[in-house]
Each structure stands twice: as C-alpha cells, then as structure tokens.
C-alpha cells in the first residue's frame, strides 16, 4: 500500500456528507495507487463525482483515471525548473528531494517551485544557514540521524565549509567567545620540529602533539561541537579533514602557506578524535623543556638578519635590508601627527574612525620585503599565527590603544605576550626600509587616520583622498593587497573625497 498525504481536499455537496466522502476518497487513493517507493507530488487532482460513489468498483475506476490524468506530464525534480507549468513532479525518495534542495541552496539559488515545500516540509522556505543549523542540531542531539549526516556531507563536499561552520556557531550561546576567531594569546609555543626527528613514528607523534596544541587554542564550545560532528561523520573522511583544516586556519591563518603541513595537522587531529576521550596525545620521548627557561622555538632564535630581507624587485640595485642593532628596538616611537588634511575626514555610517588606520598600510611593504616567502621557510612560525603576531606587535610598539578600530580584526584575541625576537627584527627592518625607499618612517605610516570596517573576512580601510602620500604612491606601496593568505583577510584600501 502506498503512503498518501492530501494537503487540501475540496468537496462540493451537503455538509453532513463531507466526512463520509473524504473517507472514501482517501481510502481509494491508498488502495488503488501502485505501491511505489517514489515520492510523487501532484498539484491538483480531480477524481469527479464517481470517486465518492457507494460502489467500490466505480470509485476505484474514477480514482485510477484521475491519477493517470494528473501524472501525465510528470517530471523529475531536477528537470522541473520552478514547476509552474507542471502538475506532477517526482523524486526517487524523500532523501533525494532533501539532497537536491540542499544543493540548490548551496549553489546560491532560491528554490521557488511549488513542489519543494511538499517534498521537504521541514524546510519551511528558510535560508541555507537556518535550515543547516537545524540539521546540525539534530545530528548533535541524537547522533542517529543518518539522513541528516548525509546532508552535512553534501554541504562539505560542495566546499561550503563556511556554511557548516556558521550552522555550528548558531547553536553556541552569544555570551561565549566568537568561534570565528580563536580566543587565545599569540605567543611562542614549544612545538617540536618534525625535520629533526629520526623516524616516521616520531614525526607522526610530533604532528599529533602540534595538532593538540593548536586544537587547545579554539573556544571549547566550538571545538566540542565540531569534534562531535566529525566523529559522527567519520573522522578520516575527506570532507571532515577539510573542515578540520578550516578550523586550523582560524587558529593560525599563515598555515595556508604550507598546504602539506596543514593536511598533516588535520590528519593528526582526526587521529586524536579516534582516541579515547581521556587519553592524552602520545608523548615525544623524555626530553622536556626546563620550567625555569622560557620556551623558545628554533625560528625565534633565528633572526631575519641571518636571512637577508630583500625586496622582490629585480630592477632594484639597492642592497638587501638588514635589521639594525636591536639595542633601542623596544623604545616606542612618539605619537605622530596624522596631518591637518585628515582632521575633517567624515565618518560614514556603519564604519569606525581610527587614528591608526595606517597600520594596515604596512602590508604592501611587507609583501615587497618578502615576508610571505620568509614565513614559508619557517614551518614552526606558520603554526604560531606569525602574520597577526607581527601586526599586533607593531600596534603595541607604537602604543595603538586596544579599543582603536584598526585592531578590530584582533578583538577576539587576548593580549600578546612578550614580543618575539623575529617580530622586533622585522619591525626594525621595515622601518629602515621605508625610510630609505619612501622617506616615510614607520610610525608616520601607522598613525594615518581613516575608517576601518570589517565584514566577515574582508577588511576595508578608507582614507581621505587628499591624504594620499605621493611618496608611497610612486613606489606602489599603497595599492590593494587583496587576499592576504598569511592573515586570512582580504584587505582593501579606498581613497574618497571629503563629504562623499
């Protein structure tokens, strides 16, 4: 017997006969329709007066004829379009209808066909994130929703990891730290380097130890929900590994510079998920850091002066920039006057006025100096969020207030610890390079007023048009850097006229 559901039944006749007529039509539909596993959706069906006849054979014949007439133009859901000209749409199963609807939403399309609300009644016309959040809660709540697990895998396979992340975030109370930015201190951590280990087992253990350290930097609520979801989906599956990679990039965006290392850390994290909940990560030998000696990595002991910081400009005949002596490196620069032209800069609605918006103007110079290439050669620094550490150390050195909107991208991070040696050297080298190349000291660059707005992973910095510095413009040091992979941000500069 086929399962039949009637949305609206309209009868014409005496009111006291309505109940009996409805029973006969429903009974006829359930007994006369073929026992098919397909999901068949019919917009309108007109059985006629014979469908409520007291004679069973006459009633059955009328229902069969009405069903055949209603399904004559039947189309599969993928070929139905919006279905406005169709009276019948079918799917292989309700599960197929849910997968197809999710694929439509993931593609950015808004399904408008009449049949979607009938095929997937729990959708209720909501957007992708709201529906996906309900699916995630169903999985985390019961753990037995195989069909819901399949839908989450569909979302991950469509490379829409951000949508899954937001769906997981939707179930976290607003009072907890934002999962999109880890709440932690950016400081040097004693992580072992795999190159110095002798065998495969030790390298695997080192990767697990590193993954455990990075995992611990995420907000606990977000970490527990993602790990619970990963265990139900299957920790070793490709889509789950990509989800774990996305979480690792939240902790340290500069890991994007080493895809192979990122994959190894995600695989190590997936192995951690298969261990008992109380089991600690496998130890790495008996060597331990001395508690009286502050932890320092190999990269922290290697100052950029041992690898010259050179501009990637073949036409330049200048010698590579070497950081000057660091004896006065920690002496903070005085506040710089941003200039009278910035005083009348109007603040646009929805944006925040910053006295140190020029902090983000250091990015093109860092790119020219080869900061990205320098990071690629130091795998340990990639795990320590080196890009944001450098910018925050610049802000702290020049006494940028913590509440300044220029630091909005770091608001979910704790105050950094002691400034690493390599960050001091880069600051000193960048300052000297800017003085020689553009005659602009670094503190003048940082203390340029503007507006800063942050939306998702896009940071837009607006400056008044008359504050554009020709010294920077001649060297192309104020051009849009665009997507900066070692920051995990797309940085845009805008120069606008006053009053517009």
List the helices and strands and how they pair.
Layout: H1 18-32, E1 39-42, H2 56-70, E2 75-76, E3 88-91, H3 94-106, H4 116-119, H5 128-142, H6 146-157, H7 161-169, H8 200-215, H9 220-233, H10 238-251, H11 259-274, H12 298-301, E4 352-354, H13 362-368, H14 371-376, H15 379-382, H16 386-397, H17 421-438, H18 442-446, E5 450-455, E6 458-464, H19 470-474, E7 482-484, E8 489-496
Parallel strand pairs: 2-3, 6-8
Antiparallel strand pairs: 1-3, 4-5, 5-6, 7-8
Helix pairs in contact: 1-2, 3-6, 5-6, 5-7, 8-11, 10-11, 16-17
Structural summary, described in words:
It is a single chain. With 500 residues, this protein is of the alpha/beta class. The protein has 19 helices and eight strands. The strands form two sheets. A five-stranded mixed sheet has the order 4-5-6-8-7, with no helix packed on it. A three-stranded mixed sheet has the order 1-3-2. Helix 5 (128-142) crosses helix 6 (146-157). The radius of gyration is 31 Å and the shape is elongated. Mean pLDDT is 76; it is low at 175-192 and 278-350.
């Amino acid at each position: 017997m086929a399962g039949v559901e009637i949305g609206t039944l309209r009868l014409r006749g005496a009111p006291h006969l309505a109940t009996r007529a409805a029973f006969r039509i429903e009974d006829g539909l359930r007994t006369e329709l073929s026992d098919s596993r397909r999901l068949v959706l019919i917009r309108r069906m007109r059985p006629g007066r014979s469908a409520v006849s007291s004679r069973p054979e006459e009633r059955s014949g009328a229902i069969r004829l009405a069903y055949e007439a209603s399904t004559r133009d039947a189309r599969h859901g993928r070929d139905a379009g919006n279905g406005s000209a169709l009276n019948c749409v079918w799917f292989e199963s309700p599960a197929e209808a849910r997968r197809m609807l999710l694929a439509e939403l993931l593609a950015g399309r808004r399904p408008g066909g009449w049949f979607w609300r009938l095929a997937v009644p729990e959708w209720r016309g909501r957007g992708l994130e709201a529906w996906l959040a309900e699916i995630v809660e169903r999985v985390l709540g019961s753990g037995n929703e195989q069909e819901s697990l399949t839908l989450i895998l569909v979302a991950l396979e469509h490379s829409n990891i951000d949508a899954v992340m937001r769906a997981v975030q939707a179930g976290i109370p607003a009072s907890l730290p934002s999962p999109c930015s880890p709440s932690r201190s950016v400081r040097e951590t004693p992580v072992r380097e795999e190159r110095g280990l002798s065998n495969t087992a030790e390298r695997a253990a080192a990767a697990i130890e590193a993954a455990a350290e990075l995992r611990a930097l995420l907000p606990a609520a977000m970490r527990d929900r993602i790990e619970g979801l990963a265990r139900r989906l299957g920790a070793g599956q490709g889509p789950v590994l990509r989800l774990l990679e996305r979480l690792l990039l939240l902790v340290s965006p500069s890991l994007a510079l080493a895809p192979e290392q990122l994959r190894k850390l995600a695989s190590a994290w997936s192995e951690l998920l298969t261990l008992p909940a109380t089991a600690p990560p496998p130890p790495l030998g008996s060597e331990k850091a001395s508690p009286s000696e502050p932890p320092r990595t190999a990269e922290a002991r290697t100052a950029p002066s041992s690898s010259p910081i050179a501009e990637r400009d073949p036409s330049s005949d200048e010698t590579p920039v070497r950081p000057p002596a660091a004896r006065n490196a920690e002496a903070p620069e005085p506040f710089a006057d941003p200039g009278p032209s910035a005083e009348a800069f109007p603040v646009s609605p929805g944006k925040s006025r910053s006295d140190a918006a020029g902090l983000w103007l250091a990015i093109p110079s860092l790119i020219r100096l080869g900061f990205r290439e320098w990071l690629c050669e130091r795998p340990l620094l990639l795990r320590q969020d080196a890009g944001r550490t450098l910018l925050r150390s610049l802000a702290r050195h020049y006494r940028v207030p913590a509440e300044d909107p220029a630091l909005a991208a770091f608001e979910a991070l704790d105050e950094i610890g002691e400034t690493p040696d390599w960050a001091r050297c880069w600051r000193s080298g960048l300052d000297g390079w800017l003085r020689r190349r553009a005659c602009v000291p670094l503190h003048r660059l940082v203390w340029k007023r503007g507006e800063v707005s942050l939306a998702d992973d896009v940071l837009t910095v607006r400056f008044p048009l008359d504050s554009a510095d020709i010294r920077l413009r001649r060297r192309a040091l104020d051009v849009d850097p665009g997507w900066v992979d070692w920051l995990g941000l797309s940085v845009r500069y805008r120069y606008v006229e006053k009053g517009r």
